Amino acid sequence: KYIGIVKEPNFETRICFLPKEVSLVTKQLELEVIIEAGLGEALGISDKDYETAGARIHNRDFILENSDYVLSINDFHDLNLDGKSKNIIGIFNMLFYPERVEKYLEKNTSVFSLDLLPRTTLAQSMDVLSSMASLAGYKAVLKATSHYSGSLPMFTTAAGTLNPAKVLILGAGVAGLQAIATAKRLGAVVEVFDVRKSSAEEVSSLGARFIEVEGYEEEKNAGGYAIEQSEEYLDKQKKLIQSRISIANIVISTANIPGKKAPILIDKQALDAMLPGSVIIDLAAEQGGNCELTQNQKTIIYNNVTIIGDSNLTREMSQSASQLLSANYYNFLKHLINSANEDDVIIKGCQVVSNGKISHPQLINKFE
Ligand code: NAD
């Protein structure tokens, strides 16, 4: 059987399968890997490196027509779906972009979207969202420091003392926690807000201050994710954020609700209260952003506040991101190939299409 990997679109700097994992697949899973010439270019990995690891180079059409498993990061349109049956594995965010599923329907195809893997201990080694969020949280702080014209740590000099920067983090999930750790290491004073009270302990253990709003509705069946809140709660939350944001130098916002538009936590009023020269990095930009003025993949300046909307900061860390993705993809592939159990929760959890039919309950809901 063939595992096929073709080049990603031009905007993508990451690669989902590296020579190390090619070698593991050929030796341990006894499958053949076929790749498009130049797959590793963005990272300086040559075709020869892939061949040494056991892959064969083919043209794109051959790979897309003949692979039993096709691996990619981004959704793509030139797959030949009329040929033999295929398993497509990627990160397609189909709960937010349900139209992406349409081309696979009524075809001999199964699709697995790794952003939907259950967030359980067993699935941790495949969890692409956690690997990417962790790197993005780190990079968000570094990026903010290069746009902020002050220092993060306190400086005591003969000429006087500079106060440490104040960093406000909205959303203490995987990205938020890594952003806290990074900002603390650089000497900033960090405040954090999340609707999930359960994150308060993690926040304090990293040395940051947790700020909270009373009245959050928890949902036991939400798999540890946040859910949408009442108008009254959102109103109280906006007021609290406005008061804290008015003294912040850097804001990293990461608040997401799976498959839904991201909650607006920073409205125009809050922006108007911000200090001149402050910087917002909005990691929720792709799902609409946490700041009212965020534009995805753009940097804008409003009233002396820089607002950077980017949910794919890991593209600026392509080496580390590809290493983690490649390990995640390999672990998932191994699990998929070795699992004899049809009701496996990991596989079912991220399978969006089964033999040409939508199989994920949340995606079925989107089409009803
Ligand atoms: P996410 O990207 O969906 O959201 C980021 C954070 O934003 C979350 O902490 C969420 O509570 C918060 N948020 C949502 N709405 C908000 C609002 N209105 N105001 C403020 N904050 C808001 O989350 P994630 O980083 O993917 O993590 C989701 C959950 O999964 C967390 O509970 C995390 O601890 C858990 N998790 C578990 C594992 C595991 O292996 N067991 C692995 C990774 C994550």
Automatic annotation (TrEMBL):
Its EC number is 7.1.1.1. Residues 4-136 form the Alanine dehydrogenase/pyridine nucleotide transhydrogenase N-terminal domain. SUPFAM superfamilies: Formate/glycerate dehydrogenase catalytic domain-like, NAD(P)-binding Rossmann-fold domains. Residues 145-309 form the Alanine dehydrogenase/pyridine nucleotide transhydrogenase NAD(H)-binding domain. Keywords: NAD, NADP, Nucleotide-binding, Translocase. It comes from the Bacteria. Coiled coil: none annotated. Pfam families: AlaDh_PNT_C, AlaDh_PNT_N. It catalyses: NAD(+) + NADPH + H(+)(in) = NADH + NADP(+) + H(+)(out). Gene3D superfamilies: NAD(P)-binding Rossmann-like Domain. It is an enzyme of class 7 (translocase). GO terms for cellular component: plasma membrane. InterPro entries: Ala_DH/PNT_CS2, AlaDH/PNT_N, AlaDH/PNT_NAD(H)-bd, NAD(P)-bd_dom_sf. GO terms for molecular function: NADP binding; oxidoreductase activity; proton-translocating NAD(P)+ transhydrogenase activity. GO terms for biological process: NADPH regeneration. PANTHER family: NAD(P) TRANSHYDROGENASE, PROTON-TRANSLOCATING NAD(P)(+) TRANSHYDROGENASE. The transhydrogenation between NADH and NADP is coupled to respiration and ATP hydrolysis and functions as a proton pump across the membrane. Belongs to the AlaDH/PNT family. This is proton-translocating NAD(P)(+) transhydrogenase. The lineage of its organism: Bacteria, Pseudomonadati, Bacteroidota, Flavobacteriia, Flavobacteriales.
